[in-house]
Amino acid sequence: MSRETEGPAASPPNTDKTAAAPEPDPKDSVRGVSGSVPGDWRMTRVLWPFMLASAVGLVPFTIYSTFLVPIAHTADGSVAALGQLRGLGGLAALAVGTALAPLIDRVRKEWAAAGGLAVLAVSAALGASGDFLLLAAFCVLVGAGTAVLNPALTAAAADRFDNDAASGRAATLITATQSLTALLAAPLVAVPALLWGWQGDLWAIAAVTGGLALFFLLRGRRADRPGEADREHEKGAGRTAGPGYLQSFRLLGALPGVVPLLLVAMLRTAAFMGYLAYLAAFYDERFGLEPGMFALVWTLSGASFFLGNLFAGRLLSADRPRISSERLMTLALLVALVSLVGVFFTTSLLTALPLTALLGVGHATVAACVTTLLVRRCGSLRGTALSINAAGMSFGVFLGAGLGGVGLALGGYPGVAASLGALTVVALGLARLVAATAASPTPPVAPVAPGD
Question: Rounded CA gap, 367 and 396, in Å?
Answer without folding.
Answer: 13
